[in-house]
Amino acid sequence: MEPIIHFRNADILNGENTVIYSLNMDIMPGDFVYIVGKVGSGKTSIIRTITAENHLLKGEGVAFGYNLVGIRKRDIPYLRRCLGVVFQDFQLLTDRSVEDNLAFVLKATGWKDRILIDHRISEVLEDVGMGTKAHKMPHQLSGGEQQRIAIARALLNKPSVILADEPTGNLDGETADEILQLLVDLNHNGTAIVMVTHNKAIFEKYPGRVFSCVNESCTEVVDEGIDVTL
């Protein structure tokens, strides 16, 4: 199998500053990968590099066949259709219903047939256990429900990978467990998950590959006996 995301000796930037030097990382189809570290250690910058929000100027980086070094602006939307992104703060449009939030994304990514749009919205809402919430406004939903909608949004274009940036950071413990179990279930169904977190309890409870960001470096923890300090 070929990696769907590949970095080799890549320097990761945050703005103009290098936050991680010489990143080596391969994400394979169906992987569940954690990127862990303290706040400011460069975790989110890796996600932003994968989505081509941050420039990659040194080293190798390829995502879904797109070269992240010098990627053309017109190719970035096509790259982003290959992946789904889930944020800590949900980032739902507050002035429209759940259904309209999801329809907006589909139309923005080239869907035109209203029947197909409605069908796909129903599918993803059922996938995340929110099949009865299509007509709700975001403010009528709990934090956990909003995050489920955000995951549904990430699933719309059937991505090979979901990038989840601290998806449980604004949730209580019980709700966070529900969201993690949902991501685990999606992974068992074949979707790769790359999750940024600084919560050690999460990757201890839901095992996966772990990359630890510390001292301007990010390396895979290959020995399960090694204690990851956060």
List the helices and strands and how they pair.
Blueprint: E1 5-14, E2 17-27, E3 32-37, H1 43-50, E4 60-63, E5 66-67, H2 76-80, E6 83-86, H3 98-108, H4 114-127, H5 143-155, E7 161-165, H6 173-188, E8 192-197, H7 200-205, E9 209-214, E10 217-220
Parallel strand pairs: 3-8, 3-9, 6-7, 7-8
Antiparallel strand pairs: 1-2, 1-4, 4-5, 9-10
Helix pairs in contact: 4-5, 5-6
Describe the protein.
The chain has seven helices and ten strands. The protein has two domains: 1-82 and 159-221, Rossmann fold; 93-158, no CATH class. Helix 4 packs across helix 5 (143-155) and helix 5 (143-155) runs parallel beside helix 6 (173-188). The strands form two sheets. A six-stranded mixed sheet has the order 6-7-8-3-9-10, sandwiched between helices. A four-stranded antiparallel sheet has the order 2-1-4-5, with helices on one face. With 230 residues, it is of the alpha/beta class.
